[in-house]
């Protein structure tokens, strides 16, 4: 009965998804600058806060090839290194989850988020720099690094087989970044209560928490993040008993060294689907935070619903939640503390 209720709620959420978003849910199917028609009945503007001054058409006139350049660069780089797709998704989670989606994670000097020990496994910086360099040739001084990261994360998701979502643009870049703020990003060892408090501070809800955790349907984790769960759970010198025994044995053999990596989805690691939730039902969550979702009575029904419903339900709701996430704590033209950086790793002021 509880599953039926949750499924109905999820379906009601998805009914609200604009028809135009389904039309764009394919790589290259519209959504690029000058190709957008203001009179096509698109009501995607209703998805964005009315007071953050972002616009779906922000670059249409000043940099009409913005999204096309981003898409092409992401495609070029991920063709050489497929792991960069999931890395870009992780990078935007770490950016938006600290002080908002302001590209503060890209600043690179002593004491920044990027130099924090918690950020040492983040990747994708060189790709963002390459995109910025290309855009400076076409649209000098007009495109922020925050907008680039936002567009690149969507391009990567679509190229991984994930959904398209409409992005509004006009973000400004933060001038500062502090390593101490990285503690705000959810770690792989928090319980659901701590995770939910963090998400609520972003203006997101429990459905967003479960859905965005589903990004772990692709990508990998460093074994160092789960070794305590495998070899010394709660100081017992044993393995977390909540992990499926056969899967735990596999992880122990795979993760003898902290620098090794393991797929977050052991069954379909390269496919953007709902297998992550099916795995959780079988006690095959890699991170503690993953498996906690199926233990907690507030999130378990949602996990069950996504596991048992068609993958498209997860894909569509992921698009909805990502469209919300990338608008967290943005800086705009009215914020004097923001800027459009010339180089994504450096503030224009050059004072650190």
Automatic annotation (TrEMBL):
The record marks 90 as: Transition state stabilizer. Substrate binds at residue 186. The keyword ATP-binding does not apply. Ca(2+) 1 binds at residues 95, 98, 100, 102, 104, 113. Its main location: secreted. Disulfide bonds join 63-139, 96-101, 145-344, 223-255. Keywords: Calcium, Disulfide bond, Glycoprotein, Heme, Hydrogen peroxide, Iron, Metal-binding, Oxidoreductase, Peroxidase, Secreted, Signal. Ca(2+) 2 binds at residues 217, 265, 268, 273. GO terms for biological process: hydrogen peroxide catabolic process; response to oxidative stress. Binds 1 heme b (iron(II)-protoporphyrin IX) group per subunit. Binds 2 calcium ions per subunit. The keyword Repeat does not apply. Residues 53-348 form the Plant heme peroxidase family profile domain. Residues 1-21 form the signal peptide. GO terms for cellular component: extracellular region; vacuole. Its EC number is 1.11.1.7. PANTHER family: PEROXIDASE 6, PTHR31517. Belongs to the peroxidase family. Classical plant (class III) peroxidase subfamily. Removal of H(2)O(2), oxidation of toxic reductants, biosynthesis and degradation of lignin, suberization, auxin catabolism, response to environmental stresses such as wounding, pathogen attack and oxidative stress. These functions might be dependent on each isozyme/isoform in each plant tissue. This is Peroxidase.
């Amino acid at each position: 009965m509880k599953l039926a209720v949750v499924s109905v709620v999820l379906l009601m959420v998805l009914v609200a998804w604009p028809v135009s978003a389904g039309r764009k849910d394919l790589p290259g199917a519209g959504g690029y600058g000058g190709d957008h028609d203001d009179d096509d009945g698109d009501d995607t503007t209703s998805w964005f806060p009315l007071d953050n001054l972002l616009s779906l058409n922000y670059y249409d006139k000043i940099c009409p090839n913005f999204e096309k350049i981003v898409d092409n660069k992401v495609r070029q780089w991920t063709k050489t290194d497929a792991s960069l797709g999931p890395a870009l998704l992780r990078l935007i989670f770490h950016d938006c989850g600290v002080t908002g989606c302001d590209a503060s994670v890209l600043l690179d000097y002593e004491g920044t988020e990027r130099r924090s020990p918690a950020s040492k496994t983040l990747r994708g910086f060189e790709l963002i720099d390459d995109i910025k360099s290309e855009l400076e040739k076409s649209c000098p001084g007009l495109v922020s690094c925050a907008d680039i990261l936002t567009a690149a994360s969507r391009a990567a998701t679509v190229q991984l087989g994930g959904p398209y979502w409409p992005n509004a643009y006009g973000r400004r870049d933060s001038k500062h970044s502090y390593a101490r703020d990285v503690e705000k990003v959810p770690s792989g060892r928090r319980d659901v209560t701590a995770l939910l408090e963090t998400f609520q501070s972003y203006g997101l809800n429990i459905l967003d928490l479960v859905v965005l955790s589903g990004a772990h349907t692709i990508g990998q984790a460093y074994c160092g993040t789960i070794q305590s769960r495998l070899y010394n759970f709660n100081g017992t010198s044993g393995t977390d008993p909540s992990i499926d025994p056969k899967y735990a044995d596999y992880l122990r053999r795979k993760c003898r060294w902290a620098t090794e990596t393991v797929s977050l989805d052991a069954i379909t690691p390269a496919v953007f689907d709902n297998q992550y939730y099916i795995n959780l039902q079988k006690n095959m969550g890699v991170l503690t935070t993953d498996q906690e979702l199926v233990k907690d009575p507030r999130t378990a029904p949602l996990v069950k619903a996504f596991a048992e419903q068609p993958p498209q339900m997860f894909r569509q709701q992921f698009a909805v939640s990502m469209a919300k996430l990338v608008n967290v704590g943005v800086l705009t033209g009215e914020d004097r503390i923001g800027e459009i950086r010339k180089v994504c790793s450096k503030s224009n002021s050059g004072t650190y």
